[in-house]
Specification:
HDIG domain-containing protein, HD/PDEase_dom, HDIG_dom, HD_domain, mainly alpha, single chain, Hypothetical protein af1432
Length: about 200
């Protein structure tokens, strides 16, 4: 797997290709994933950091919706980084159903079929789950309570048929990692209180 320094270099290249808030969001996901992994003790903090840092690396290709996951997978596979490539796909799916994606399906039918099969048949481990959680709680300047992020997404995308099930899946991830850490994960992460107080409107 790429080292933290190599992953940071890849993100820096991505920032030059497509500047935007996704860069600081990715840094936040990486840091938060490392802090939680280090607390758990049985996960590799550096591996969690690298995966979090590069989960959205497909955004280097431009402003896209579901295609950013496929672009990230393809790019990481081109570097023989299969574990990170996997995270590029799984980070959006706490429910293993491609149709629970919040956003547009700006991909071909063949790409959607590949993604659907991959997600349906993936056997998630705690790295998949950790990056899913950290993606859901990480703002560009730190973390916030998960409920705020879920409402933020709903305000932007509306309430869809699968929304409540996806909310329950994210809340389940939060409870799962609270138990693994033997504490509330918010106590481990930067800026939770400050970010959670900010208005969404």
């Amino acid at each position: 797997m790429l080292s933290p320094q190599e992953a940071e270099r890849e993100l820096s290249i991505g920032a030059k290709l497509n500047p935007g808030p996704w860069i600081k969001h990715s840094m936040s996901v990486g840091l938060n994933a490392k802090l939680i992994a280090d607390k758990i003790g049985i996960l590799d903090g550096n591996q969690a950091y690298v995966m979090g840092l590069l989960h959205d690396i497909g955004r280097r290709e431009g402003t896209k919706s579901i295609m950013h996951t496929i672009d990230g997978y393809d790019y990481m596979m081109s570097l023989n980084q299969e574990e990170i490539a996997r995270i590029c796909l799984t980070h959006s799916y706490p429910i293993q159903d491609v149709n629970t994606f919040f956003g547009k399906f700006d991909c071909t039918e063949e790409q959607k079929a590949f993604l659907s099969c991959f997600i349906k048949n993936a056997v998630y481990d705690d790295y998949d789950r950790l990056i899913q959680l950290c993606d859901a709680i990480s703002l560009p300047n730190g973390a916030c309570i998960i409920e705020k992020r879920l409402i933020d997404v709903a305000l932007r995308h509306g309430l869809l048929g699968f929304t409540l099930d996806k909310w329950k899946a994210f809340l389940g991830l939060k409870n799962y990692f609270d138990k693994l850490c033997d504490c509330n994960i918010y106590t481990l992460l930067p800026n939770v209180i400050e970010n959670s107080y900010d208005s969404l409107l």
